Amino acid sequence: MAKYLFLASYTTDGVKGLLKEGGTARRAAVDAMATSLGGSIESYYYAFGDHDLYIIADLADNASAAAIALTVGATGAAKVSTTVLLTSADVDAASQKMPAYRAPGR
Q1: How far, in Å, CA of 101 to CA of 42, rounded?
Q2: Which residues pair with 83 in a beta bridge?
Q3: What's the pLDDT at 1?
Q4: CATH number at residue 8
Q5: 8 found inside a domain
Q6: Buried b (16+ CB within 10 A) or exposed e, 25-36
Q7: 54 burial type by CB count under 10 A (0-12 exposed, 13-18 middle, 19+ buried)
Q8: Three-class SS state of 74
Q9: Which of 8, 21, 56, 65 has an alpha carbon 20 to 30 Å from 81's alpha carbon atom?
Q10: How many domains are contained in the chain?
């Protein structure tokens, strides 16, 4: 499983829905969505600031992460950005790869 960070910001309609349903019900809905794709939610936090939600999910692949972002975004209730998270071991593996590359202008 890969880890993904979802940052979400509610629109006005999203805030209305949150006020109507409450935070726990929204968490349950997100848990169910991840589970329906064979994944799970590791952490789910509401916050003040630029984003209303910080969610870390374990998902099978990028397509599953994209499906979540597209599905939520299509509702118009929230704007979502997705970041693929790497473990220390992932970075170690990446640092051992030597891709052929030439910098611009060199």
Answers
A1: 36
A2: 5
A3: 93
A4: 3.30.70.920
A5: yes
A6: ebbeebeebbee
A7: middle
A8: helix
A9: 21
A10: 1
Asked, for residue 42, whether it belongs to a domain, the answer is yes
H-helix or E-strand spanning residue 28: helix 23-36
| Secondary structure tally for the chain: helices H, strands E | 4, 4
Split at pLDDT 50, 70, 90, the class of 79 is very high
Domain of residue 54, residue span: 2-86
Cα separation, 13 vs 25, whole angstroms: 16
Segment 27-77, tens digit of pLDDT? 999 999 999 999 999 999 999 999 999 999 999 999 999 999 999 999 999
Residue 80 counted as domain residue: yes
Question: How far is residue 51 from each of residues 1, 36, 83, 93, measured CA to CA in Å?
Answer: 25, 25, 14, 32
Residue 98 falls inside a structural domain = no
